[in-house]
Design a protein that fits this description.
This protein is α+β, with helices and mostly antiparallel strands. Helices cover 37% and strands 24% of the residues. β3 and β4 form a beta hairpin.
């Protein structure tokens, strides 16, 4: 039996981060739509240091890219577009 000291690579997943405050302002609808996807790992942050955006728009951080829109529907479409164009999932 062969044994390897190298760890197996885990499947890479797209990272989507939400600010908890922004979730309460409407981004939770987007969160709820994305939570069941196998290619996404979602995280919630107490603060993403985007307070000036959080006050006036909904946003998510997708694989390090800030996506911001005026409505949850628009945000979901933009997040899905970003995931389609720049996916890191294997």
């Amino acid at each position: 039996m062969a044994f390897s000291f190298f760890k197996r690579k885990k499947d890479l997943k797209n990272q989507v981060e939400f600010c908890i405050t922004n979730l309460s302002l409407g981004a939770a609808d987007v969160y709820d739509e994305l939570i069941g996807r196998d290619d996404i790992e979602i995280s919630e942050s107490g603060c993403t240091s985007n307070c000036e955006i959080c006050e006036c728009q909904l946003f998510a951080i997708v694989n390090g890219e800030l996506i911001q829109e005026d409505s949850a529907e628009q945000l979901l479409k933009s997040v899905e577009k970003e995931l389609e164009e720049n996916s890191i999932a294997l």
